[in-house]
Amino acid sequence: MVKVILNGCSGHMGEYVTKCASDRENVEIVAGVDLNTAVSRDYPVYSSIGEVKEKADVVIDFSHPSALSGVIDYCAGNKVGLVECSTGLSDEQIENLNEASLKTAVFRSANMSLGINLITELSKTAAKVLGDSFDIEIVEAHHNQKLDAPSGTAYMIADAIRDELGSGVEYEYDRHSKREKRPKNEIGIHSVRGGTIVGEHEVIFAGNDEVIKISHSAGSKALFASGAVNAAIFLANKESGLYTMKDMLK
Predict the structure, then answer these.
(1) Non-local CB neighbours of 127 within 8 Å, separated by 6+ positions
(2) CA dihedral 172, 146, 12, 226 (to 10 degrees)
(3) Fewest CB within a 10 Å sphere: which of 77, 81, 108, 230?
(4) Helical segments of the chain, H only
(5) What's the CA gap between 108 and 100, in Å, rounded?
């Protein structure tokens, strides 16, 4: 039985992860952490991770990035695995996660969906095949409550494509102030925010007389919760190191 501490247990994703874990026989949430401790859960809820008394194998973190420092300290100090699901992390926070992976097992993905990770790999393959003969644009859409833009997933896809094409590729977010032709060495990244859109990502490869589109649409946040729980099970008892969805899918 994999024992989990759920950081951010009172939020929407906390509800989905709680439900997902309750349907599994091989994982149990032993404690939750959230500033809102009034939420009703079948496990104790603490206002900070340092207050948690229960022993756990893995922390699943769906909290605000501002809480990451305490989570990293707890996991690294107690040799507890960390499944980091928060988006909008700074370069410094990503570096802190990398440093923590020297002391404990850390799993990080900008998106916990199997489908998203698949289209990321497909986009890399397309970029390799098409080379610089196609212009590349990424369009992502999310609900009107999402704070970061572009999404972490859009960056994940763009970074994967740039790794394939080379370091000369630049990201372009806003063309309205420019009056110039589109250069070949850029990836356009565009954000849409509205209503209750769970998450949509489309990668457009536009060439001469043909357009190739690779897209993914999330119908429910439950798929992200399932991915996080699967990652926690995968990470339990792993040696220190940095793990990604690629490692889990091998």
Answers:
(1) 136, 161, 164, 165, 205
(2) -10
(3) 77
(4) 12-22, 68-78, 91-100, 114-130, 152-165, 222-235, 245-249
(5) 12
What six digits make up the tokens of 242?
């940095």
DSSP designation for 177: T
What are the helix (H) ranges across 101-132?
114-130
Per-residue pLDDT reduced to its tens digit, 86-122? 877 888 999 999 999 999 999 998 888 989 989 999 9
**Model pLDDT for residues 199-249, shown as the tens digit of each residue:** 999 999 999 999 999 999 999 989 999 999 999 999 998 999 999 988 887
Give the N- to C-terminal CA distance of the chain in Å, as an integer.
Answer: 22
Q: Would you call 234 helix, strand, or coil by DSSP?
A: helix
201 is catalytic: no
Q: What's the distance, CA 150 to chain centroid?
A: 13
What is the distance between the alpha carbons of residues 222 and 53, in angstroms, rounded to a whole number? 28
Given the residues 142, 190, 201, 216, the one annotated as active site: 142
Across the strands, what pairs with 213? Answer: 204
- Model confidence, pTM: 0.81
Q: Give the confidence band of 142 by pLDDT, cuts at 50, 70, 90.
A: very high
Helix (H) or strand (E) holding 58: strand 58-61
- Amino acid, single-letter form, for residue 222: A
Q: From the candidates 53, 146, 213, 250, give the one annotated as an active-site residue.
A: 146
Catalytic annotation present for 178: no
Give the containing element (helix H, strand E) for 150.
none
Beta bridge partner(s), residue 191: 140
